[in-house]
Specification:
With 244 residues, the chain is of the alpha/beta class. It has two domains: 79 residues, Orthogonal Bundle (Helix Hairpins); 137 residues, Immunoglobulin-like (Sandwich), CATH 2.60.40. The protein has three helices and eleven strands, in the order βααββββββββββα. Strands 1, 5, 7, 8, 10 and 11 form a six-stranded mixed beta sheet that branches. Strands 4-3-2-6-9 form a five-stranded mixed beta sheet. The structure holds copper (II) ion. Copper (II) ion binds next to loops.
Length: 244
């Protein structure tokens, strides 16, 4: 399988990985919107703080100011922050509910977390192709080939079609795990005896790297996730080859 177009974190990366789903694009945009308010509030509070430190120092104000109450200012500093909260809440709720939406999926894939690997089940393939189950283990450091990513590459990648509504079911077999792929905007807890559902719609082909994101024992760092999105034709070809 291809080893180019890798979507993984880079050394000293501070910002998001490139989005590959509408959900992740929404998360990046919400972050931008929130950053505007965050920056504004940070500088406003800093200005107030330094003004206060400067004008109210002991040397220049030996007697306390008798003012203890101001109705207008109290109304202003109550209403403006609550307006800001509403402006912040509206887009974040819109995003939250749109992430929860599962739109008539044409494919379901089940991800099960184990100590310490993931296993995948494609249960709704056609009769001819049959069901598909496989385990996905990390490639150990001494078996890596040139260009493969340390602690991120797996022996069996999960291949999914792009441009398709996919239902992702996540569960665990032993302890808590979490199935997380940053570029896809997915992070779902894997709980024993419980099936968590999310959806995915990949906008482009690529290889997307993720990691278990719920501390699950000594092998927690050694159970990465690799999702490869391909065209629908290539996906069907992969499915047939994998089962033959
Ligand atoms: Cu885990």
């Amino acid at each position: 399988m291809s080893t180019y177009l890798l979507d993984s974190s880079s050394p000293w990366q501070l910002y998001f990985q490139d989005p590959a789903t509408p959900v992740m694009e929404g998360i990046v945009n919400l972050h931008h919107d929130l950053m505007f308010f965050l920056t504004f509030i940070l500088f406003f509070v800093l200005v107030l703080l330094f003004r206060t430190l400067y004008y109210f120092q002991y040397n220049s104000n030996r007697t306390a100011n008798p003012v203890i109450h101001g109705t207008v200012i109290e109304i202003v500093w109550t209403i403006i922050p609550s307006l800001i909260l509403v402006i912040v809440a509206l887009p974040s709720f819109a995003l939250l509910y749109s992430i929860d939406e599962v739109i008539d999926p044409s494919l379901t894939v089940k991800c099960t977390g184990h100590q310490w690997y993931w296993s995948y089940e494609y249960s709704d393939s056609s009769e001819e192709i049959g069901a598909l189950n496989f385990d996905s283990y990390m490639v150990p450091e001494d078996e890596l080939e040139l260009g493969e990513l340390r602690l991120l590459e797996v022996d069996n990648r999960i291949v999914l079609p792009m441009g398709t509504h996919i239902r992702v079911l996540v569960t665990a077999a032993d302890v808590l795990h979490s199935w997380a792929v940053p570029s896809l905007g997915i992070k779902v807890d894997a709980c024993v005896g419980r099936l968590n559902e999310t959806s995915m719609f990949a906008l482009r082909e690529g290889v997307f790297y993720g990691q278990c994101s719920e501390i699950c024992g000594v092998g927690h760092a050694n159970m990465p996730i690799v999702v490869e999105t391909v065209s629908v034709n290539n996906y069907i070809q992969w499915l047939v080859e994998k089962n033959s």
